[in-house]
From TrEMBL:
Keywords: Acetylation, ATP-binding, Ligase, Magnesium, Metal-binding, Nucleotide-binding. CDD domains: ACS (cd05966). InterPro entries: Ac_CoA_lig (IPR011904), ACAS_N (IPR032387), AMP-bd_C (IPR025110), AMP-bd_C_sf (IPR045851), AMP-binding_CS (IPR020845), AMP-dep_synth/lig_dom (IPR000873), ANL_N_sf (IPR042099). It comes from Manganibacter manganicus. Mg(2+) binds at V538, H540, V543. Acetylated. Deacetylation by the SIR2-homolog deacetylase activates the enzyme. It is an enzyme of class 6 (ligase). CoA binds at R190, A191, G192, K193, T312, N336, S524, R585. Its EC number is 6.2.1.1. GO terms for molecular function: acetate-CoA ligase activity; AMP binding; ATP binding; metal ion binding. This is Acetyl-coenzyme A synthetase. Residues 532-610 form the AMP-binding enzyme C-terminal domain.
Length: 650
């Protein structure tokens, strides 16, 4: 390997590794050579009430139908909790680290069992049945984990909505999956600031009611004790309810293809989609990837810094690690509170061995100076993970050199909400690293690169990243809209799963993700549809038209750049800019906060009125000398104004 930034597997990484290079190659060949046999063997890593006899039944053609282990019966909560009780009932299952550094708790597997059973009985008492959708809008507190497992235990389908989303966004998600139950907290706490979750829930329920969805029950966990409104007969305190029910609850015997959860994610068009994940294959896949990608050994302390509102929190804070009997850390706070040493202090405090975070956090912490890292020990760290967006080699090297002191492999994991689990990543004892590359596929994964004409690119080259065959963790449908599922993922290239990402394969067969090729942007590792921000902007009565694009941002990866055409007679000024920014935050949530707003009298459109985003992207990047052909524009002169008033001059 000749590239710069190559880091060969170190002897220490190999020493006790679960998978060495030879094993990786052999297992990989087996997994793609005879998937049925491979996944039959590995399906047994979880416990089944009734064993499966069929392993794989999947087609990417026609209507697209994906089934794994379809005649097996199991339960996710049973696998993540009950089956560990005998051997590790007194082991810590979850370490909870609060927003305030003096606030922490641990929960053993035994305690987790009781909390989850009680919560499950509370749900049952309030009428939640197998198959019902339960919306969870929670801060990063233990009760969020209890709630998710309680749903899994009784066969209810959870839809976790990130606590940073607005009442409108929450209402949209409640309505889309027709959820009559909401679990929330009085308030959340982040960096010392209170987030009015119950208040937002009340508002969302009102909005949903206008769309014909009635929320019958709201279970509220007390986090801050802040003042909230209360609807008698609808709202119930979790602690009161949990005290009045039995401490044991039999797990439902679920079919492998019964839904486990819905998670909303942004696409290039329309409203966020409810990505649906099912039970058996998902758990096999996330537990297996958690074990091998992080070279997880019994007794390791594992910390993934994500929020349970995202898929990373589902798969790699809770389901994967707990299926493996791990000790997983749940962090309520943020990386720079009270100081930029917080992450490393938490590592030292809880002796974290495996640490998994996002490039945006790495870049932000790198930016404030090495001294915040260097004053901590970090000697417990063995593995460093990265997820959510491409990690630039500079950030990678800093993570490796400064945080890990060149002792810990940096494991860059590429995957998506839809893939359920990690797809491309180096296994620590097996695969040489290259800074900036997610390296090689996991077992059973066959990435393919396709060009615009649908030709498969063999060997070195770039193209759109697709998957040739099904894997157990993948999404099965878009909730309530299978047609949209087929359309979004399987119609660009017939018979293949299309990820929406561009990618390069180098001479060593390593994969380098280059980012989205559609109108989705990635802001601090969070996926945002430009169409969603546009529709929030045009919902403002002073806005006539809007076009939104991403541009490179030093910390966030991509920033949100908005071109706004104002309504007749409205004056453009800084106050209006602030008003529009506040409006978008209000409509969607803080993660959609526009970074730049450019007032544009006209947008570049073709004669058929299609906005030419290529031009808008270039101007946002301050690369206007390379605009390409503008002769097909209906009015080429708008471009001059756009360039003259660009907001990103370097
Ligand atoms: C999109 C998926 C995976 C869970 C968190 C995000 C980008 C994700 C990487 C990576 C380069 C990455 C892709 C992907 N992405 N991980 N390691 N290297 N890009 O899940 O919200 O579904 O977003 O995030 O563009 O398509 P998500």
């Amino acid at each position: 390997m000749s590239d710069a930034h190559v880091h060969p597997v170190q002897p220490a990484w190999k020493k006790n590794a679960l998978i060495d290079n030879e094993t990786y190659l052999k297992w990989y060949a087996d997994s793609v050579g005879d998937p049925d046999k491979f996944w039959d063997e590995h399906g047994k890593r979880i416990d089944w009430f009734k064993p499966y006899t069929k392993v794989k039944n999947a087609s990417f053609e026609g209507d697209v139908s994906i089934k794994w282990y379809e005649d097996g019966l199991t339960n996710v909560a049973y696998n993540c909790i009950d089956r560990h009780l005998e051997r590790r009932g007194d082991q810590t299952a979850i370490i909870w680290e609060g927003d305030d550094p003096s606030d922490d708790k641990t929960v053993t597997y035994k305690e987790l069992y009781e909390h989850v059973c009680r919560f499950a009985n509370v749900l049952k008492k309030h009428g939640v049945k197998k198959g019902d959708r339960v919306t969870i809008y929670m801060p990063m507190v233990l009760e969020a984990a209890y709630a998710m497992f309680a749903c899994a235990r009784i066969g209810a389908v959870h839809s976790v909505v990130f606590g940073g989303f607005s009442p409108d966004a929450l209402a949209g998600r409640i309505t889309d999956c027709k959820s009559n139950f909401v679990i929330t907290a009085d308030e959340g706490l982040r960096a010392g600031k209170r987030i009015p979750l119950k208040d937002n829930t009340d508002k969302a329920i009102e909005i949903a009611a206008k769309d014909g969805i009635k929320v019958d029950k709201v279970i509220v966990t007390r986090r801050t004790g802040g003042k909230i409104d209360w609807v008698e007969g609808r709202d119930f305190w979790l602690h009161e309810e949990a005290a009045s029910v039995e401490p044991a609850c039999e797990p439902e015997h679920m079919r492998a293809e019964d839904p486990l959860f819905i998670l909303y994610t942004s696409g290039s068009t329309g409203k966020p989609k409810g990505v649906l994940h099912t039970t058996g294959g998902y758990l096999v896949y996330v537990s297996m990837t958690h074990q091998y990608v992080f070279d997880y050994h019994d007794g390791d302390i594992y910390w993934c810094t994500a929020d349970v509102g995202w898929v990373t929190g589902h798969s790699y804070i809770l389901y994967g690690p707990l299926a493996n009997g791990a000790t997983t850390l749940m962090f309520e706070g943020v990386p720079n509170y009270p100081t930029p040493s917080r992450m490393w202090e938490v590592v030292d405090k809880h002796k974290v061995n495996i640490f998994y975070t996002a490039p945006t956090a790495i870049r932000a912490l790198r930016g404030v100076g090495d001294e915040w890292v260097e004053k901590t020990s970090r000697k417990s760290l063995r593995i460093l993970g990265s997820v959510g967006e491409p990690i630039n080699p500079e950030a990678w090297e800093w993570y490796f050199n400064v945080v890990g002191e060149q002792r810990c492999p940096v494991i860059d994991t590429w995957w998506q909400t839809e893939t359920g689990g990690i797809m491309i990543a180096p296994l620590p004892g097996a695969i040489d690293l290259k800074a900036g590359s997610a390296t090689l596929p996991f077992f059973g994964i066959i990435p393919e690169l396709l060009d615009g004409d649908g030709n498969i690119i063999e060997g070195e080259g770039s193209g759109n990243l697709c998957m040739r065959q099904a894997w157990p963790g993948m999404t099965r449908t878009v909730f309530g809209d299978h047609e949209r599922y087929v359309q979004t993922y399987f119609s660009t290239y017939k018979g293949k799963y299309f990820s929406g990402d561009g990618c390069r394969r180098d001479a060593d067969g390593y994969y380098w993700i280059t980012g989205r090729v559609d109108d989705v942007i990635n802001v601090s590792g969070h996926r945002m549809g430009t169409a969603e921000v546009e529709s929030a902007l045009v919902a403002h009565d002073k806005v006539a038209e809007a076009a939104v694009v991403g541009y490179p941002h030093d910390i966030k990866g991509q920033g949100i750049y908005c071109y706004v055409t104002l309504a007749e007679g409205v004056a453009a000024n800084d106050d209006l800019r602030k008003e529009l920014i506040a409006h978008v935050r209000h409509e969607i949530g803080a993660i959609a906060t526009p970074d730049k707003i450019q007032f544009a009298p006209g947008l570049p459109k073709t004669r058929s009125a299609k906005i030419m985003r290529r031009i808008l992207r270039k101007i946002a990047e301050d690369e206007f000398s390379a605009l390409g052909d503008t002769s097909t524009l209906a009015d080429p002169s708008v471009v001059d104004d756009l360039i003259a008033n660009r907001q990103n001059k370097r």
